[in-house]
Design a protein that fits this description.
Helix content of chain A: over 70%
CATH class of chain A: Mainly Alpha
CATH superfamily of chain A: Membrane associated eicosanoid/glutathione metabolism-like domain
Low-confidence stretches of chain A: none
Largest sheet of chain A: none
Radius of gyration of chain A: 17 Å
Order of helices and strands of chain A: HHHH
Largest interface: A-C, 25 and 21 residues
Shape of chain A: elongated
CATH architecture of chain A: Up-down Bundle
Number of domains of chain A: 1
Number of helices of chain A: 4
Structural class of chain A: mainly alpha
Oligomer: homotrimer
CATH topology of chain A: Four Helix Bundle (Hemerythrin (Met), subunit A)
Chain lengths: ~130, ~130, ~130
Amino acid sequence: MFQHLPAVVVLLTVLLQCGTAYAVGRARALYGVKAPATSGHPLFERAFRVQMNTLESTLMFLPALWLAATYSAPLWSGIAGLVWVLGRVWYAVGYLRDPARREGGFIVAAVGLLAVLGMGAIGLGKALLLG
Amino acid sequence: MFQHLPAVVVLLTVLLQCGTAYAVGRARALYGVKAPATSGHPLFERAFRVQMNTLESTLMFLPALWLAATYSAPLWSGIAGLVWVLGRVWYAVGYLRDPARREGGFIVAAVGLLAVLGMGAIGLGKALLLG
Amino acid sequence: MFQHLPAVVVLLTVLLQCGTAYAVGRARALYGVKAPATSGHPLFERAFRVQMNTLESTLMFLPALWLAATYSAPLWSGIAGLVWVLGRVWYAVGYLRDPARREGGFIVAAVGLLAVLGMGAIGLGKALLLG
């Protein structure tokens, strides 16, 4: 069962993106910011920044998760991945309420990202040395 | 042959990104919006928004396509993926002509995304239950 | 050992994203651009554009690299991938110094991207023909 944990994390990552995209769509309607504008109301801009920052982080996280799951242990990669997802959910919810409250989740997510990145890099290094 | 259909969708997704990036570069030259600016002319801003929205959607779609192709049937995942690509092309072409005409393609792409996401989630759920 | 070269490229791609994200965070602090703003100082805007352009390009590159590594030779895919990474590092460093100096790296990265895309497309085409 543990071998599927990274895939569970991938599913949660997709749902996280859906959530931050939904928050932007809702803010667009709520504060009357018509597409293609991405500014015009502070609360819309906040939701938009949450989505973009989540996207930026996801593009570092998913390749790192793949490296860790392929070259290291799927169980520990999956657990570190869950830490990243939880940190990112906390970051998004905190930031949407108050930009000053985005730091806790950001740090937790960074720890999760560094963990999968470290596991992936070490596992890949071992594979290269062993030929 | 069907087992390669998801890979065909991946290739089309990359070409779609190339297309929306090309439209932004062309609009930059055409309307004299110098980098690093991302605003200054409504038609440039529209092309830029199309690229960014395509990018946001791709980062939900590709991991979901991987889940569906891995945990469900490659043929049906590929067909749902083609629906997403077609919807996204329609969205991009429609939006570039008139922001009001972006809804049809958006809805078709959303159906394709929900289909791969649903197939991936159900397939993963089954794999977890079967251990 | 060569079979791991695409994974090395994936690792370098993640580190590249970390680098461009770090440059944005540093510019945010240095030029006093408070989140969620993404404008307000030309040098911050430049760092932000470098990050976003790197992100846009990465979302074309990684799926194309996967196609090439899966359907073509891992060694040549990895070498073309290294060309893309080097081009992108050159682009980022050049652009951060002077927007006029971003072209060299951009062109090198485009050559690397076209190479992996071409290898992936040809390899996939062969796989489809052979059934």
